[in-house]
Design goal:
Blueprint lengths: L1 H16 L1 E3 L6 E3 L4 H18 L6 H17 L10 E5 L6 E4 L3 E5 H6 L3 H16 L2 H26 L3 H41 L6 H12 L16 H11 L4 H12 L12
Parallel strand pairs: 3-5
Antiparallel strand pairs: 1-2, 4-5
Length: about 280
């Protein structure tokens, strides 16, 4: 228990050492990796995924994802030096999409078909790109690094104090549960909620209706009915009910931006400069 208490005492102190700020939300975050390291890992992961997954050659599907993705990337409103945007459609019925450091975005046909409009697709791609701009991957890795360091430190302390095997096992279990349930999972849910909020802003800035995020996630909730899911406090994601309620609350805030941006896109005001988009 002393080791567990020490984790929660030391966590904020370590956060001060590697602290950065999420530009769009202003939240302080622990980052122990560099943007270039994250990009290298993202590029390696994307290369592997493209080798292992079947890439769709459906021209309409690829054009749809690329158009929405480019507009979302443009609406970020700032250059991301490490991002070389690439949008790929994977030929799978999986209801999934992702974005990796370095600006690599993948959308599966199953999810693309579930999104009945480009406004809904923009909510998804905006969410995924928000993970990239907020450096959530680096933050997750940093949390894991810190948790691993705490575990190593606890083993050293137990060795020094010659703690008996039974107490060691209890300490390891308690420390593992404490770091997972008390820190890693809550931060994962925070990342998802933060990406939802920032993603709405990106979608609205690209001229897509932020209210479509609500209808998309309602449809996703229906598509996943019957699946066994852990309680929210043991999950990496907020529950569908929590997510939908938050989106309903946030979407009206971005309606003025959406209406203004839609008119500007229709007038072609953004055509001359694409930020970091090939």
């Amino acid at each position: 228990m002393k080791l567990l208490r020490a984790f929660f005492v030391l966590a904020p102190l370590v956060g001060l050492i590697g602290c950065t700020t999420v530009t769009e939300s202003g939240r302080k975050q622990l980052i122990l990796t560099s943007a270039s390291q994250e990009t290298q890992m993202g590029l390696a992961a994307f290369t592997q995924i493209k080798q292992e997954e079947k890439i769709s050659h459906d021209v309409m599907a690829n054009d749809r994802v690329t158009e929405v993705g480019r507009r979302i990337a443009r609406s970020v409103g700032r250059d991301l030096p490490e991002a070389k945007w690439e949008f790929v459609v994977f030929d799978s019925a999986e209801l999934n999409a992702f974005a990796l450091p370095g600006g690599k975005v993948g959308v599966y046909l199953g999810l693309l078909n579930l999104a009945q409009s480009n406004d809904e697709l923009a909510a998804v791609i905006g969410h995924e790109i928000a993970h990239v701009t907020s450096r959530h991957a680096g933050e997750r890795m940093s949390h894991q690094m810190f948790a691993s360091g705490v575990q190593v430190g606890s083993e050293m302390i137990m060795d020094a104090k010659d703690v008996d095997p039974q107490k060691r096992a209890i300490t390891r279990t308690m420390l593992g549960i404490g770091t997972t349930v008390g820190a890693i999972l809550p931060f994962s849910r925070l990342h998802e909620s933060e990406a939802d909020a920032i993603g709405l802003r990106f979608a609205a800035g690209a001229g897509y209706d932020p209210r479509a995020a609500v209808t998309f996630w309602q449809r996703m909730q229906k598509a996943n009915e019957g699946q066994q899911r852990p309680p929210e406090f043991l999950s990496t994601h907020p529950s569908s009910q929590t997510r939908i309620a938050n989106l309903k609350r946030l979407a009206p805030k971005y309606l003025p931006l959406y209406r203004e941006s839609k008119q500007r896109w229709e007038r072609g005001e953004f055509a001359e400069r694409e930020i970091g988009v090939p």
